[in-house]
Amino acid sequence: MMHRFVTIPATPKETGTWRSGVRFYSTTAPSGFNIYDNEKKQRLEFWVLTRAEADAECERLNADCFESMFIRSSISSPP
Q1: pTM here?
Q2: DSSP 77
Q3: Which of 1, 42, 63, 65 has the most CB atoms around its CB within 10 Å?
Q4: Alpha-carbon distance 24 to 17, whole Å?
């Protein structure tokens, strides 16, 4: 089963550029991790610095999603 929310590396932020001859070089800084929504196919605005924090948030979001689906299905099905 594929989880709805997963942890992915955030896009690095450009911190500076310099030129050497005809080439341009850039330096980047790591910017942590994002949460990706597999259902909507987009990154959430939420980001964290460590993978452990991102994984914990994914587990919480997936549990909330599963719980709401379970409640919805138990309400709609007759006893």
Answers
A1: 0.66
A2: S
A3: 65
A4: 7
Q: Which two tokens stand for residue 15?
A: 């911190």
Give mean pLDDT in consecutive 10-residue pieces for the chain, a chain of 79 residues.
89 82 83 92 88 94 82 60
Element at 8 (helix H, strand E): strand 5-9
The DSSP bridge partners found for residue 7 are: 35
Q: 55-58: list long-range contacts, CB under 8 Å, 24+ apart.
A: 55/7, 57/5, 58/3, 58/5, 58/6, 58/7
Closest CA to 68 of 26, 25, 39, 30: 39
Q: How many CB atoms lie within 10 A of CB 22?
A: 5
Place of tokens 């990706």: 36
What would you measure as the largest C-alpha separation in the chain, in angstroms?
75
Q: What does DSSP assign to residue 50?
A: S
